[in-house]
From TrEMBL:
<dbReference type="InterPro" id="IPR001732">
    <property type="entry name" value="UDP-Glc/GDP-Man_DH_N"/>
</dbReference>
<dbReference type="InterPro" id="IPR017476">
    <property type="entry name" value="UDP-Glc/GDP-Man"/>
</dbReference>
<feature type="binding site">
    <location>
        <position position="23"/>
    </location>
    <ligand>
        <name>NAD(+)</name>
    </ligand>
</feature>
<feature type="active site" description="Nucleophile">
    <location>
        <position position="253"/>
    </location>
</feature>
<dbReference type="InterPro" id="IPR014026">
    <property type="entry name" value="UDP-Glc/GDP-Man_DH_dimer"/>
</dbReference>
<dbReference type="GO" id="GO:0000271">
    <property type="term" value="P:polysaccharide biosynthetic process"/>
</dbReference>
<dbReference type="InterPro" id="IPR028357">
    <property type="entry name" value="UDPglc_DH_bac"/>
</dbReference>
<dbReference type="InterPro" id="IPR008927">
    <property type="entry name" value="6-PGluconate_DH-like_C_sf"/>
</dbReference>
<keyword id="KW-0520">NAD</keyword>
<feature type="binding site">
    <location>
        <begin position="145"/>
        <end position="148"/>
    </location>
    <ligand>
        <name>substrate</name>
    </ligand>
</feature>
<feature type="domain" description="UDP-glucose/GDP-mannose dehydrogenase C-terminal">
    <location>
        <begin position="306"/>
        <end position="407"/>
    </location>
</feature>
<dbReference type="InterPro" id="IPR036220">
    <property type="entry name" value="UDP-Glc/GDP-Man_DH_C_sf"/>
</dbReference>
<feature type="binding site">
    <location>
        <position position="313"/>
    </location>
    <ligand>
        <name>substrate</name>
    </ligand>
</feature>
<feature type="binding site">
    <location>
        <position position="28"/>
    </location>
    <ligand>
        <name>NAD(+)</name>
    </ligand>
</feature>
<dbReference type="Pfam" id="PF00984">
    <property type="entry name" value="UDPG_MGDP_dh"/>
</dbReference>
<feature type="binding site">
    <location>
        <position position="320"/>
    </location>
    <ligand>
        <name>NAD(+)</name>
    </ligand>
</feature>
<feature type="binding site">
    <location>
        <position position="148"/>
    </location>
    <ligand>
        <name>NAD(+)</name>
    </ligand>
</feature>
Amino acid sequence: MGYVGVTTGLVFAELGWKVTGLDTDALKIQSLSEGKLSFYEPGLDILLSQHLQSDNIRFTSDPIQAIREHSVIFLCVGTPSDINGSADLQYVRNVAEHIGTNMNDYKLVAVKSTVPIDTNRKVRQWIREAQTSPHPFDVVSNPEFLREGSALYDSLHPDRIIIGSNSKQAVDTLKTLYRSINAPVLVTKPKTAEMIKYASNAFLATKISYVNELSRLCDKIGVNISDVTKGMGMDHRIGPHFLRAGIGYGGSCFPKDSKALLYTAKENDIQLSILEKVTEVNNSQASYFLNVWEEKLGGFDHRTIAILGISFKPNTDDLREAPSLAIMQHLLEKQAILRVHDPIAKLPSYLQGEFVQQFDSLEDTLDGADAIILCSEWTDYIGANWSQLRSVMGDYFIFDGRNKLDGKSLTDLGFYYYGIGNR
Ligand code: UDX
C-alpha cells in the first residue's frame, strides 16, 4: 500500500471491482481503513472515503486472507536502489513467497512494480519454490506509467496498457479488469514489458537532460530555451512534452530507473553511453545554474534566499531526489540564510537549523529576502500577487528554476528575473 498500490487499488475500486489492499505495516492499514492517506495526491482522499463507504475496498495486514480471497493479485511493492545502483528485489521476493505459501487455487499475479528485466521469471520461480501444493498460477508484467501529482487522471486515462504474458487466460483476465478504460492494449512477452517501462522512463529523462544541456548554451548566447523548445515541440516527430528546461528531474522514478537500467546494461557488457550522460547532466544542472545565479546576485554568503517549492514537482509532498534538497545544501555551504515555502511538503529534519526556516505564508517567506529560487512550480507561485510580494523583499532577484513564471511581467514590476537558459 505504497504510492502505486493505493492508487491502483482505488482505481480498480472506482472501476467497480472488489479490492483488498494488503500491507505488512499495520499502522498504515489502520489509517487507510479510517480514510487517511500517508501521502498527498490530489483526488485520492475523496476516492478512498467513497470506496470505503461503498465497500469496494478494504485494507488488511493479513496476507493469508488477502491472498486466498482474491484470484488476481497486483504486486506494487517498492524496488529501491541498492548501493550498486541495481534494483533491490527483497520486497518483491517476500511477496512472491507469501503468495506461494498461502495460495489455495489459481492465482494471476500482475507485477506493477518497476522491476529489472527478467524479474517476471524470478517471481515465477520464487512462487513455485514457496508452494506447498502445486496450484496453477500466472505471472504477468503490467507496468505502471502514472505520474505523481496526476496519478488518478493518469491511471484512468493511460496512453496504453502493457500486458507482458505468454498466457492467453491471464491476458484475457487483465483485459476484463481494464475493460472500462479507453486505451490501447499492447500484449508482449514479459521481458519486453519490463524493458518498455525502463526504456520509457529513460527516454523521458533523456528528453529533459537534452534540453537542460542545451539551456546552458542558450543562456550563454542569449537565446530563450523555452522559445526553442516551443518551436521544436511543434514537430510531431518530437512532440511538446518533457521538453521543459529546469533544475533537473527528481522523484522516485527517473533517477532510480535510469540507474537500474545502466546496471542491467553493465551486467550484460553493454554501455548505454547516452543514458550515462543523461544522468551526468541531471546531476550537474542545478549546480551549473546556481553558479550563474550566484554571479548575478554577487555571492550567496550571508544573503537571504527564499526557496519556493521543495517537493520534486508540484501537487505532491514527495521529496525523493528533489533538486531543492541539493540546492539548499549547496546554499548552506555558501553560508546563505534560507527561508523556505512549500504548500504541502515539509522540510526534512536534517536540513532544519539556525539558518533554515520554513514558513506557512508566501509573505512571511519573502520577508527581507534578497532573492527567490523557484524549485517546483506550484500554481500558488505562478498566480501570486508579485507586486505585493515585492514590497516585503530586501532585494529583487528571482531565479526561476522551472521557467514557469512570467519573466516579462516580473521585470516590468522591477524584479531582476533569470530563468534556466532564459534571461
Ligand atoms: C515519472 C513518469 O512520468 C511516469 O510515467 C512513471 O510512471 C514514473 O516516473 P513522476 O516521476 O511522478 O513520473 O513525475 P514526472 O511528471 O514525470 O516528472 C519527473 C521529474 O521531471 C520532475 O522533477 C519534473 O519537474 C521533471 N520534468 C518533467 C522536467 O524537468 N521537465 C519536463 O519537461 C518534465
